[in-house]
Amino acid sequence: MTELSSISKPRLAMSHTERHARAPISTAFIPAGVSITTLVLIAAVMAQEAMAPYCSDLKRATDLAMTNERFASISTKPRDGNFADSSLALMDWDDCSLYGARTYTCDSQPIRTAQEADQAQEKIFHEVQTCLGNSWAEAKDRSSLGFIVLHHADQPVSITLSIDQTDQKQYVVRLILFGRSN
Questions:
Q1: Residue range 70-122, pLDDT digits in tens
Q2: Is residue 81 packed enough to be buried (19+ CB in 10 Å), middle (13-18) or exposed (0-12)?
Q3: What is the dihedral sign for C-alpha 62, 68, 70, 72?
Q4: CATH 2.60.40 fits 55-179, yes or no
């Protein structure tokens, strides 16, 4: 009796490995397609979780800075000087206020040491960049130790992140959003 080649063997007589090796290409890649889709979804969820809790509020503030009215719609009770309370507060930030018609400012939570303030400023810088996207970039020629400047690529809007010390000898990172004139 001659031995049958694998091509002439009836399908049921093929080994498990031979049957899977001959599976149509479209079904052979289904697990890989599912895995890629799953990975994309996981990456999207992780990116959302990585967003700072104040991101949506910051986006709203930057959108307002790009309008002709600037911050008029969020200006509430006047303060001393040219300051006013703001109805838009960044989540987890303190003392969000307006200065004049073109400046929105908030202070981070108090920080104990200058070194921790430097680390917080760097972390906030990356959070702001991630939140606002590629149209915002650091203006390295205008940044210095303790002072980071970001600007929008197409709009006359900028953000500074500076480190300041309070009267209580604590530190804060101060975010200042400035809508410049065209």
A1: 999 999 999 999 999 999 999 999 999 999 989 999 999 999 999 999 999 99
A2: exposed
A3: negative
A4: no
